[in-house]
Fold this protein.
Amino acid sequence: MFATSPHLRVMFRELAEDLLNRRDRITMPDGASLRLAICLDRRTRLAGMYNAVRVIEHTQHYDVFSEVYFRPLAWALTPSGRGSAHHAGQSVVDGQGWAVVDHWLQYGEDRTAADLRSLCRAPLPAVLHPLNGQDRDAWMEFMSDKVTAILEGQIPS
């Protein structure tokens, strides 16, 4: 995730250093949360800081520091503790029930396998990227060429 958004190294310096130095004990910094879902799409997407707001029919927001959609899983580093964005409607990630997996950072390199059923408290939701749906025209996207990199592609059969 830090590769898609070098700006994260500034925002979350200690997390970047802990990951780079492969520290035994890593904690999620204040203001961020690691989220997980099942990815249904054949499209792969790696992106840095990205925000979208659905403005037609009803309001929703999709706000991520970084995201990885690579079937079978979708990961997102999302803001936390910034309060509710009432003007932008419900968070897509919260509304779909993405699992919060901040505690996974505590597993060391010696952990090579795990049963997802024992690592997540609730079933993982099956998702598509919000802008890959049929209602793409209902969304406004916000990004910056200074902090946002987006890589997308198809996974061959």
